[in-house]
Every structure is written in C-alpha cells, then in structure tokens.
Inverse folding.
C-alpha cells in the first residue's frame, strides 16, 4: 500500500498545526505540545515516567479563555431544570462547564486536547482512554488527520483569531 503524497506524515502534521497556532492563536490561548512520544532509551523513559509523563496524553494541549460558563446559583438551577426537562438542548459550542464565581476577576479557561494522526495513524488504547477521561470531565477533545481538519476543530473551539480561514500548505519537505 503506497502513501498518498498529498497526505502529510504525522511529524509534518504536527509542524503544520504548531505553525498555525503560532501564527493565529486567539488572544489569551495557551497551547503546547507535551514531551510525549518519540523513541527514547530506557533510562530517559524511566526518568520521564517518574517525573509524571503519562501515556496517551494528546499531542496539542490548549487552555482557551472564556469557554467556561459563568452563572449565579439561581441561573444554574434554571439552566439545569431546562436541560433536564428538554426545554433547552445545549449547542456543541456552548460551554460544557458552568461555575459560580467565587473571586472577582477570575479567569476561566476551557481545557482542550487535540490528538494528531498521520495517514495510517490509529488511536492507541491509552490515547482513547485519555480522550474519554478528558471528555467525561468537560474538556474539549478531538482528533485531526489533516491540517484542514485541525483548522476546523480549532476554529470551532475558539482557539484561533476570528478570520483565520486557511492553513499555509508549504511543500511538506520544507516542514520536516
């Protein structure tokens, strides 16, 4: 089976998404690529495990300001009752986590995890478990296999500046 030359390797995909975030991350968005992956000698792998590196953690981790809803206790009660009674169906872009502010000027952020997969990439058991755990506590989670798919996901999450509509597609050989 030959690889489609238009599809990027996973390394190239990572570099494209990192370049997109460097160029167009929305104000206040914090993002990084954790030091998981890559081949290591056993001593380094052991040291990183002891330091807390976890298997399955997504390739891109983001903190997106304003994706947590802020409501008074009374507003939260009304919203919960409306959802439970079927009078309100939360939209996909609505915050999934709602809090009552305790401290003034508190910044609330929405954690998000983006897993990147190359042309023949499949989620490992550890990656699926991590995404499921993150999703179950209200984090944004998704998987992208092309720069264009990552762009759509990051736009939907509000992680990119408004008006960001394209991914620069340089020759993949220049990216790797």
């Amino acid at each position: 089976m030959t690889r489609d030359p238009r599809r990027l390797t996973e390394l190239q995909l990572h570099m494209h998404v990192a370049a997109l975030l460097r160029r167009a991350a929305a104000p206040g968005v914090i993002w990084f690529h954790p030091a998981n992956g890559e081949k290591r000698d056993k001593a380094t792998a052991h040291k990183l495990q002891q330091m807390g590196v976890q298997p399955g953690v997504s390739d891109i981790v983001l903190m997106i300001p304003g994706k947590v809803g802020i409501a008074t206790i009374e507003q939260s009660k009304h919203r919960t009752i409306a959802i439970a009674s079927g009078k309100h169906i939360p939209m996909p872009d609505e915050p999934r986590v709602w809090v009552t502010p305790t401290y003034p000027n508190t910044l609330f952020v929405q954690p998000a995890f983006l897993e990147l997969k190359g042309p023949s990439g499949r989620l490992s058991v550890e990656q699926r478990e991590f995404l499921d755990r993150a999703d179950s506590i209200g984090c944004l989670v998704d998987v992208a296999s092309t720069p264009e798919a990552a762009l759509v996901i990051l736009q939907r999450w509000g992680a990119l500046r408004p008006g960001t509509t394209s991914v620069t597609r340089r020759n993949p050989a220049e990216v790797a």
In short: The longest strand covers residues 109-116. Strands lie at 30-32, 60-65, 69-70, 98-99, 109-116, 140-144. The mean pLDDT is 83. Residues 69-106 form one domain.
